[in-house]
Write a structure and sequence with these properties.
By secondary structure, the protein is of the alpha+beta class. It has helices at 3-15, 47-60, 109-118, 134-139, 181-185, 201-218, 238-244, 273-291, and strands at residues 20-25, 37-43, 64-67, 73-75, 80-86, 94-97, 100-104, 121-122, 143-144, 147-148, 153-159, 165-169, 188-195, 197-198, 225-228, 251-252, 255-257, 264-267, 300-302. The strands form 6 sheets. It has a 5-stranded antiparallel β-sheet. A 4-stranded mixed β-sheet has the order 1-2-5-3. A 4-stranded antiparallel β-sheet has the order 15-18-17-16. Helix 1 packs antiparallel against helix 2 (47-60).
Length: 303
């Protein structure tokens, strides 16, 4: 990969009026607040640009990373070579037609939940407070409090590794616990269609407020983290296993197993990438030694 290759991508971005950043600190784009600089970041503002950049990167051997609000990733302190394609506020339009919400992948879940409330639409209350984009939520079939994206999704558009645009209906998405055809197949989601139902706005708001209060009471939202660090093992809970292994509050550097919720590894201030990785491995090894269950990391590690 050469500087010329990167500038070729920057030229494409310029044709679409997209913002290009150089040596951008990734810690500013992740909820963990950890990560070195990326060589180039391009703020995606339309599907056509995203498609052209994916084709450009693959044709020229340029490493590229799809990043939304950075709520489920841990980035190396050494930074990232290549290009970060940021799907965020510049690609976040959303509108409602009847009981259907159509939105671009960069729309935040919180904003879409608020839009649903404003239009007396119920079904997304579970997602209020999940700090990600709609595209990222579908990608991993995010869920909480008895609901998940598979409950409301109708269809979505995406781009495959060859730059082909495809549309998937829900029955073709292979949605399961924190997984989907998009995650396994390397697709990049560009837009999402969700079907909700008419509801009482007061009841919808009450449910949203109740779930947010529960999040604040039980989760360490006052510290940077990537949410739940480990997937729920079959028939059990990661937090329970971690607590039984007496790991609550255990630290490596400024990375700590939260004392408030042991399913979260938090950044107490200046945790490094290595601090978090070492703590993840320590937790996995101890839980496996004590229970015979190997926890699977839910956080995507980029290095």
């Amino acid at each position: 990969m050469s500087l010329f290759d990167l500038e070729q991508a920057a030229k494409i971005a310029g044709l679409y009026g997209a913002e290009v950043l150089y040596d951008e600190p990734m810690k500013a784009h992740t909820t963990f607040r950890i990560g070195g600089t990326c060589e180039m970041m391009i703020k995606i503002n339309c599907e056509a640009l995203l498609r052209e950049l994916i084709v450009c990167c693959r044709s020229n051997g340029i490493p590229y990373y799809i990043v939304g609000r950075g709520s489920n990733i841990l980035v190396s302190d050494k930074g990232l070579k290549g290009i970060v394609l940021l799907i965020g506020a510049d690609f976040a339009a959303a509108h409602i037609s009847g009981e259907v919400i159509e939105c671009q992948a960069g729309a935040s879940l919180g904003a879409v939940c608020s839009l649903a409330l404003e239009n007396s639409l119920s079904g997304l209350e579970f997602a209020y407070g999940i700090p990600g984009t709609v595209g990222g939520a579908v990608y991993m079939n995010a869920g909480a409090y008895g609901g998940e994206m598979s409950d409301v999704i109708i269809s979505c558009r995406c781009i495959d590794k060859n730059g082909e645009i495809k549309t998937f209906t829900r029955d073709k998405m292979e949605l399961g616990y924190r997984t989907s055809v998009f995650l396994r197949g390397g697709y990049c989601i560009t837009s999402v269609s969700m079907k909700l139902e008419k509801g009482n706005p007061s009841a919808i708001k009450e449910r949203m407020d109740t779930l947010m209060s529960r999040r604040k009471a039980k989760q360490p939202l006052e510290y940077p983290s990537a949410g739940s660090t480990f997937k729920r093992p079959s028939g059990d809970y990661a937090a329970r296993l971690i607590e039984e292994s007496r790991l609550k509050g255990v630290s490596v550097g400024d990375a700590q197993v939260s004392e408030k919720h042991s399913g979260f590894i938090i950044n107490k201030g200046d945790a490094s990438f290595d601090d978090v990785c070492r703590l993840i491995e320590q937790v996995k090894e101890k839980v496996y030694s004590d229970s015979g269950i190997m926890l699977e990391c839910e956080v995507l590690i980029m290095e």
